[in-house]
Amino acid sequence: MTRLLIMGPPGAGKGTQAELVAKHFGVPAISTGDIFRANVSEQTPLGLEAKRYMDAGDYVPDEITNNMVRDRLAEADARQGFLLDGYPRTLAQVEFLDSVLAAQQASLEHVIELVVDEDEIVARLLKRAAEEGRTDDTEEVIRNRMHVYQEQTAPLTALYAERGLLIRVDGMGQVDDVAIRVENAIAAAG
Ligand code: B4P
């Protein structure tokens, strides 16, 4: 059963690659960012709460995020495997995911880390800002998102490396080329 995580700084291509790689393995791509954005646009109580944090480039509190992921992972399609995009992002989320999977007697297979230069990240996010106008893609908020990532999320890759799960993949270049790199790296890791 395929249970994967995809990690990387904002703008590394997580959401982009998650869709392609999840399709390749026939599992649902579950993006916490997308679920939050859907709730924001539907103006649900969860969305109204999450928006305050997202607009500033801060993480939504763990308790809210964890409960949302637990509910999504309990759905039938995710029981057959999944690719989680943008979760976990904090140590508390790692521990929570461990407990959810342990309760299902399930375990992660691989953790993909997309590696992209900082200049390229900023260029991609500013391009998206111009094209899509996402409220968290202003230069000031992008800078805060990158800072929060370095502080809270980057250290988690070492933890997954210690567990023997981490696969680092070059995220530079064309989208399709990166997807092939990810799929080949997963195949090589067995
Ligand atoms: P996310 O939605 O995860 O936002 P992101 O880090 O920017 O990644 P995204 O998937 O959108 O962008 P990608 O790198 O694919 O999170 C948004 C916010 O939600 C967070 O700041 C936080 O507030 C909240 N949140 C989400 N998860 C949370 C959690 N677990 N805990 C707490 N809070 C949470 O792509 C970026 C751009 O690059 C795109 O425009 C894409 O088209 C482009 N691109 C991708 N690949 C490219 C390539 N190879 N070449 C050129 N451009 C490329």
From TrEMBL:
Keyword Transferase found: yes
One Gene Ontology biological process: AMP salvage
Pathway: Purine metabolism; AMP biosynthesis via salvage pathway; AMP from ADP: step 1/1
Region (NMP) residue spans: 31-60
SUPFAM superfamilies from the UniProt entry: P-loop containing nucleoside triphosphate hydrolases
Assigned keywords, A-Z: ATP-binding, Cytoplasm, Kinase, Nucleotide biosynthesis, Nucleotide-binding, Transferase
Similarity remark: Belongs to the adenylate kinase family.
Protein name: Adenylate kinase
